[in-house]
Amino acid sequence: MKKLFLYAGLLALLVTAGCKSDGNEPIPEPKPKPTPGTTVDTTRHITPVVPVELKKAEKVARDNAFTFDLLRAVRKHSTDANVFISPLSVSMALNMTLNGAAGATADEMRTALRESGYSTADINAYSRELREALLRADPKTTIGIANAIWYLQGATVKAPFIEANRTYYDAEVQALDFSSPTAVGTINGWCARKTNNKIKEIVKQVDPTTFMYLINAVYFKGTWHYPFKKTFTTEADFHRADGSTQHAQMMRQAYSFNYAKDELGQYLEMNFGNDAFSMVVMLPDEGRTTRDMITAMNSNRWEATIKRMSPKAIALILPRFKAECDYQLQEGILPDLGMRLPFSNAANFSGITNAPLFISTIIHKTFIDVNEYGAEAAAVTINDMVGSSDPHQYKDFIVDRPFLFVIREKSTGVILFIGEIGEI
């Protein structure tokens, strides 16, 4: 029986940008709150260059439900301190595959993706609309969403499957001689090009029973709308999830951010570029944990939290952080969400080929880097500011312990990435 390999989210890269520096300047000891005369930006929103409106906007709530369910499943099966996933990438790779699924196999995939009730045609149309909208939402934010399918040279792949993925997912489809020594280089070369050379090797060798590789890659690079200054970054303690303490480089700034509070913790939103995309930091209160937040969060609660947010003067302290994660989603994670048949000999992918076929592996690989740097730092505008002379007006938001974060497109509410940072 032939195997289908899926690679989702080869790269999710976020480089948040601030002021450039030669890296050798002395770092003074700043105060966490601004001194008298410091300015605070009270501008809450700048309309994205291309506001995004989706015809099937109600599906976003389903997507976000999948996001939090997937995060819980990944957290359950991972012992790592940090978790980072792109639900957008996982759902896109699976929806491409759904074009070839039939019967109970397709039903289980829709259940796992929280897409029950939607036809494949509806899902395809929504996926194309969403992909195109995200790509044009903000010219100051770099986002790439690429898809590719390689199938065994000489094999028969059904034309409707190929056509659907080319039409709705802009997938590159190519027959490939998997026995050739150049096959691995072809696949890895595509990955390198689509991830800005951040991931150069995803396939070490081709399994002789492989029928198809289906790959989705997401690349994201955003620059802070309000930049950090490297001269304000200092070393401070970060308290890990396991109770130990480590030194971290803490970035500092004081501005007006969208903010909300509930019984679990605090929420702060930081904008990128022209404000189309943002990162929401979720900081549990003392005595609460990120696991409490993960357990409690769902699509409805998330939407209510975002709606409650309002501008507040904040003295923010946020660590630089990086995370690189690698998951095999077929090992407990997607089965926990109801997707089991596609990984078994009973799978029905008759829409791809008449030969028996099942999904062997779904690899989800991600990387994130949050810091002050970025080539677009000088382009960030901070002109619209008004004065504030009283440092006591600022509320501290000190991220010195485990936290969650979400990167989203604001006008639609679509979540691109979500993660938990337990150590720096």
From TrEMBL:
Record bears the keyword Signal: yes
Serpin domain location: 68-424
Highest rank taxon of the organism: Bacteria
Secretion signal, residue range per the UniProt entry: 1-21
Segments for region (Disordered): 22-43
A molecular function GO annotation: serine-type endopeptidase inhibitor activity
SMART domains referenced in this protein's UniProt entry, alphabetically: SERPIN (SM00093)
Protein name per Swiss-Prot or TrEMBL: Serpin
Gene source species: Tannerella sp. oral taxon BU063 isolate Cell 2
UniProt KW keywords: Signal
